[in-house]
Every structure is written in C-alpha cells, then in structure tokens.
Amino acid sequence: MTKRVSIEKRREFIYYCKNNTSKSRDKALEQTLKRIHPSLNWSAKNQARMHRKNKDREYKSTLDAMSFWPEKQTSIGARPYDRGHIDIFHCFNLNIYFNGHINYNPIKAIKNLITEYLVNAG
C-alpha cells in the first residue's frame, strides 16, 4: 500500500553543513520537525552531501545547491530573520515565481543531454 501525501502538506528543510554530512542527522532533524509540526510531512536534506546523489559538482552553499534543481520555480527558500521578518532567497529572477509557468533549469537540461549522448554513444 502506497501512502499519498498532499503536496500542500509536504515541507522540505534544507541546510548546509560540511562538518556532519550523515543521513542520520537528517533523520534526527526530520523527527524534531515532526514533533514541532506533526501534520506536515517533513524532509530534511544536508546540501553539503546531496551533490553526490545528484551527480553534480560539490555545492558551495544551500543557495548554490538550489541553483542545480531541475525546475527554477522550486529554487526559492525562506528563513526567519530579525524580529519576525522572513528572509527570502532565490537563484533566479523573482518574476518567474509569479508567471504561472514551470521553467526548467538549463543546467539540468544540458547535463541530461550530455549524459544521454554518452550512454547512446556507448
């Protein structure tokens, strides 16, 4: 039986820590987040490790990692800032987040074309 999760209930928590890239740390963070807000389906991922899974060059920061995500519209984040304000950070022009379209990241498109060529050239 497959459990379906509404996209509205899914939350991704990303961070960058080169000192501890263990998956167990991600799992511990997910458990903490679930205790704080149990109605959401949390995913925690250390971006200092994710370049290996994604077969990219090593990421330099959380923002750098986001610049490799397949859809530009997913490359936006928020974090608490001074006195209740929220800091929004993004990799691409803010206009794309409000145009009603999905724009694919050319970094991924070019990488996928090269990979496909190399596999087929076999």
Can you put this structure into words, describing what you see?
With 122 residues, this protein is an alpha+beta fold. The protein has one domain. 35% of the residues lie in helices and 18% in strands. A two-stranded parallel sheet has the order 1-2. Strands 3-4 form a two-stranded antiparallel ribbon. A hairpin with a 5-residue loop joins strand 3 and strand 4. The model has no long low-confidence stretch (mean pLDDT 86).
Tell me briefly what this model is.
The protein is of the alpha+beta class. It has helices at residues 23-36, 47-54, 62-66, 106-121, and strands spanning 10-15, 41-46, 76-80, 86-90. The protein has one domain (7-121).
Approximate helicity band: 25-40%
Q: Biggest sheet: strands side by side, in what order?
A: 1-2
Per DSSP, the total helix count is 4
Q: What is the strand content?
A: 15-25%
Low-confidence segments, given as residue ranges, are: none
Order of helices and strands: EHEHHEEH
Shape: globular
- Alpha carbon gyration radius: 17 Å
Mean pLDDT: 86
Give the termini separation.
38 Å
